[in-house]
Structures are given as C-alpha cells and as structure tokens.
Amino acid sequence: MSELSPPPPPISGYVVVDLSSDIAGAYCTKLLADGGAEVIKVEPAEGDPLRHWSASGAQIADGTDGALFSYLACSIRSVVVDPRSDGEFVNALLADADAVVWSRGSALAEDPGFGPQAIHRNHPHLTVTAITAFGLDGPWCDRPATEFTLQAWSGGIVGLGRGAPDRAPVYVGGRVGEYLAGAYASAATLASRMRGGAELVDLSMLETSILGLTYYPVSYHEMLGRPWRDARRLTVPGIARAKDGLVDIGCGTAQQWFDLCAMTGHQEWIDEDSPLSITEQANEKAEDLYAWVADQTVDEIRDLATAFRIPNAPVANGANVDSLDHFVARRSFIPNPRDGFTQPGPPYRMSPATLRPPEPAPRRGEHTEHYRNRPRNIIPGRDSGRPTARNDISRREVPPIPRREGLPLEGVRVIDMTTFWAGPSCTHLLAMLGADVIHVESTRHPDGTRLIAGIPVTEEQWWEKSPIFSGLNTDKRGVTLDLQSAAGRDILGRLITTADVVVENFTPRVLESMGLTYDAVKAIRPDVVMVRMPGFGLDGPWRDNPAFAYVIEAAAGISWLTGYPDLNPFEPYSVGDPNAGIHAFNAVLLALEHRRRTGEGSMVEAAMVDAALNVAAEQVIEHSAYGALLQRCGNRGPTAAPQNLYRTTDIDEFGRADSWVAVAVADDTQWVGLREALGCPDWAKSDELATASGRHAHHDLIDRHLTRWCETRTGDDVVATLWAHGVPVAKVLQPHRQTEIEQLASRGFFEQVDHPVNPATRHSTMPFRFSRGPDRVHRTPAPLLGEHNHQVLTELGLSENEINRLEAVGVIGTTPAR
After folding, report:
1. Lowest mean pLDDT among 170-179, 368-377, 785-794
2. Cβ–Cβ contacts within 10 Å for residue 151, how many?
3. Where do the domains of the chain lie, and which CATH numbers do they carry?
4. Stretch 397-406: mean pLDDT
5. What is the pLDDT at residue 193?
6. Burial readout 201-233 (b: 16 or more C-beta within 10 A, e: otherwise)
7. What is the pTM of this model?
8. Where is the composition biased (Basic and acidic residues) (predicted)?
9. Which residues pair with 731 in a beta bridge?
C-alpha cells in the first residue's frame, strides 16, 4: 500500500452472509458493507423482494432493480440458490463466513435447517444476528406484525402527543422503524465481533421501536407518577406555514421560549414565574405565533431564529432536500454508482479510518459462479475445535479476534462529554456493553436531561430525580468539571490520557472555543477515537445551529411523511436523537477496529442530520429515480392495505373514548385471514379486494367496514380475533403501559434499578439478547451529580487535599451552581 493510498476499511476481510429480506436486514448489511465487510446476499431465483419494490408504485422493468434496492445493496455480492437443492452450497458459505444476518420472509430462511438456532448449532463459530418482530422466543414470537403495528404496541404512535385531538393519532411515516432495527442489528453484530463472535444475537423490532420512538416512558411514569404526555396537541410553533413554504421552529427549553417571545416582538409574554410550562404558554399564544410566521418568508424566519439561537430548519422532502444549501455545501448526497439516481452519503464520516466508497449493487445472481467455483483455503479453526474454510487469503493479514469471555467492550474507557439524548444514547450502549464510561458534566451546566422532568427546584435534590437522565446513564460513572477554568481543562486533559474514546455532542463552536479540537485531543492521546456528534455537522452554513430531534427530522424529510394529508406535517419529536446515537455507536466500533489493526486513532463525525438523511433515503431516491414525491397519508402506507387505526369501545385511563387498534394487511394471505375473521361478509368477497392494488384502490370502503366492526369491540377482542387469523394487529398503547406487554416481560426487557435518591424503578435495556450474555444489563444506577469525583480523580493521581481544593473553588462539585 502506498503512502498516499487510504487504508482498507475497518472490517475488510469480515465475511457476512445475508439471509434476510426487507429493509431492516438490508440496512444492517449496508452498514457492514460500508465498513468494509464482504457481504454475500443469498437470494431465491426470483430475487430479493426489494428488487421489485417502489414506494411510489413505479414500474420496475424486467432485468432492472428498484432504486431502493440499488441503494441498500451497494457494495454487496449476490448469489442465487434453490433452497431444495443448494443446502450444501449454503452451508459452505456459512462455514467460510464470520457472521450471518437472518430474518423471516424467504423460502431459505423458513427452512428448518437454516433457521437462526439451527445455523448457530451447525456453525458455532458464527455471529448469527436474527431480526424478528418480537424476538425468537416468548409468547408472541410467532405473532404476525408490521412496522405499523409495532409502532402501536411500542407506544410510539401516541407517546409524544402526535396528532390532532379530534382525529386518530398518527404514526411516524417512512418506515423509519425498519431502518432503526437495521442500525441496531449492525451494532449488535459488530459488538459480538469484539469478543470473538460465536453466538446468537436475537433482535426484537418491537424493542428497537420502543427505544427509537418513545422517551423512557416506563421509568418516567414509575418515578414521577405521571405520564410524559396524556393528550394529543400540536407542538407550538413546531411546523408552521410561512409566506413561501413550511418551516420548523423549536421551543424545547425555557430560554428558547423567552428568545422566541423576543424574536416575535412579544417581550411582554416573558414570565419567569409563570405556573404554566413553556409548552402551555406557547399553546396559549399559538394564534399570534402562527400569524407572525405566516407574515414572514422561510429565509427571514430562519435568519432571525438562528440569530436568537432558536432551533430551526426548513421542512425538507424528496424534491428539495438535496438542493438545500447546507447539504450542497457538505456534499451530503451522491449519485448511485450503478443507476445514477441521488442517494445520501454515509451516515458518519471518519478519518484516517475510511469507509468503503459505494460500489454498484449486484445484478441478481451476479456472483453465484464465483462463490460456487472458487477454491477454499483451509486455515486453523476457531473455538469449535474444527478447521474452518476461509476463502479470502488476505484475511490472514488481519489480526484475529480471539473468542473471550466477558462483555464485548470490557477494557475500553470512554470520556462522555454528551448531553440530552443523542450523545448519551450512544455512550449508554457502550456502558451497557462493558465500557468504563465517565460522564462529564459541570455544576454550572448539568446534563440537560436532569432539567426537563418538571421537578420544582424547591424540592430536595431535584436534579437527581429525572427519569430521562436515569434511563440514559446507568452503568456510567459521573464527574463534574468546570471546563471554563484552566484547572478543569487540565483535569480533562489528564482524563483524556487514559481514554480510548472521547464522545461529545455540542455545536462545533462550543468545544472549539475551549481549544478541544481533534488535533488538540490527539496531541494528548495519539491513538484516541474522538466522536463528534453535532446536529448539522462540523462544516456548512448550518453548522452552528442548535439541533434538537424535531428540527433534524424536519431537515431530513422524516417529518414530511408524518401526519394527515390535509394538514401541515407533524414533528415525530423522537427518532432524530436515538437514531443518531445508534449510528454513532456503529461508527465507534468501526473506529476501534481500525485502531486495533493499525494502532491509529480516528476522528469520527457522526452528525445527527446525516444519520437522519440515511433513514429517510427513500424519499430522495424515489424522486430522483422516478420523479415521484412521496406524501404523508395519515396512517395509511405504501406497503399494507388496509393499514389504519380504528377506534374500539374501550375508555382509556384518562376517561376518554380514545382507544384504538392498528391493523395492517401486508399480503393476500393476510387479507384472506382478515376476511375470515370478519365472518366473510359479502362486501369482502369482491375479487377486486383479493389483490394489493385493489385494496389500495378501495381503502375507503375497507376502512368504513373495519371502523364499524372495531367500534363494537374491545381492543383485546380485536387483537385476539385477528391474531388468531394471522393478521397483524395491535392495541395503540400509551407508552408507559409497555410493562403490560407479556412478550417484553418474557424477554426481560425491563430491569428494576435501585437508586440512592429515587424509588426502585424499571428501566428498559437493550433490544437484542446475546446467547453468551450478559444476563443482566443494568449493573449500577445512573450517577448522582459528581458522584465519582473523588474516585476518578484519585485514579488520576490527585491527592485528597488537591481534590478538596478543586471542590472549594467550584471546579468540581455535587450540586448545581446557583
């Protein structure tokens, strides 16, 4: 390799067999291929279903592939097999591989010999990552589901008050849940790899939906005795119509509300002693705020909001997102290497570690003969005690990862300089998987999630009573440092000398104003992995704009597909943060592997908006490939018909007739099941309804009949009846009712966590289970403010007198500064 050529991607030589169908598995293997893995997609003769898919209904000509497939399948290989006769060939591929990604949906995956447990048993060296709706075991493991019904079960449809109070609530559009599941599956596969693989990874899409679409609602409810939200209402201002288009204006903190009042010329609205929350105050002034927005252009509003440090973004869609000035400046979009349409670049950027530049997606079976005929090179086996066939001689040059016991990230130290949700969700996974994560706050600026629980400041230790902080920070240690002081920065530098990874998620100017650039951190610890997670990236015209989930979702196009067709879009207000966190976690694992192989550290830029653009990719792809602008359709969607919410007879816990079920018929067999569940009424026997196209065309008719049928039944009755006939269905749960789901209880998704200030409270864990453990995820509660100051500073060599002096002058502390 010449001095000028880039290093190989971090996981080059890592071989993954893809036995999955649909977006979740495909996005998982796309992320692995971006990292350098050799991904072999095993397809039936007719090809993967995504080859024939277009969300807009565009016709896919024979011999060509749908654009979404061409995006997700960049850089992978394709082999075609006949499940009836090619078992030996498939087993040879598995014997030569390091990992397999599996989901239901193909004849091969449904073959008992190629289920995940059978593969794990027959090829014990592999990491076998299984992606299913509910998990591989438990009472619901074989129940039918779609992403839509999983959103309902998760509480993600109603948990953040999305929708108008006089209509059904609305789901988050764009199939984001499938992308989230894929990102988590990739992360779990890479984490397993770090301890030598040889295990079954069991991922539940219900659980990824809970973590991606709700905000620790069980912990919130149990700790504070109230739900996060109990009613649907517009976020104000939120997404509003200006003179020339839609704009999203955020108001997530008291200071942002005060600034919004000043920006709109209403300083008289500012009342720091108001008994109302900022949300309630904004709703009181909604009419005036919307009138002000309507009288300005989008650019005028955004210029003012940026000057006032108020989160803001244009509302992007498939037609305009790639032309927004920030994305043009950052080259956020690239041409598809085979078909030329526009697609997002990678969800994170790395240097000197490099991702693989996307290569053209394969034609169906393009590599079949290559894999059938190439010689198999036998090299020493793994812990299974038998030799394993390895096809890629270059892998001999990669230092092997021996199988070891313990958690995947034991021995890794992380300095966690993150706040709110996106950054802490990344470092929380690192901590739960064994890393020593030291969460750095200051007494002047504690982690923002300590401040959003609505606990009166008159209450003793109010800052320790946030269920959101608790949910995001178990298994971490906590220190406080005043980084405005020279002494605080000196301590931070000493911490960095001990660190493998440093993670931060401030706007770029914050750390740069303190001199904490990557070059500065690298000068302290040359092989450090520094992960920067700004909302909009480290460059471009929006780089210093404050970013919360809702403006990221608007800027990436996620909001555009969420809501009713006759109203402005709604902010999902959820997925932007955890989506950024799981993508950053993937990037950390890749950078650590690069360091293992080369000894080099890396700078990782994991901008929230880049991760969001990737999970919203289908919009820009459909528009650039087919000229189709995807639109929001309430609770309908492009995959299933019927797909909608229907009211039941139940009265909800707040005394309202506001209880719903979600129904989604994804194929013709499920339609037959629905028809039988309804008693085969005459209207349902029409031949036109026997096909998906006919059901889409007559969706209104089906909705009318399903509405009448459901409104005379309880939610439990609807679910039991439809599940018995193989139809995907769910109750639309309030998110704090997740603990009532027997499937989650069976899988141990919630663990009770003791706390020195708060009552013992159930906390969500991880959405995947490793067959090699851990059996328990939460080992220690979230740290009290500065709880580990003495412990950590003593480890750095400071004396008790030095630590006491730092505390006396306010460099460290255990209570918020007044």
Report:
1. 368-377
2. 27
3. 238-317 (3.30.1540.10), 641-727 (3.30.1540.10)
4. 87
5. 98
6. bbbbbbbbbbbbbbbbbbbbbbbbeebbbeebe
7. 0.96
8. 361-372, 392-402
9. 661
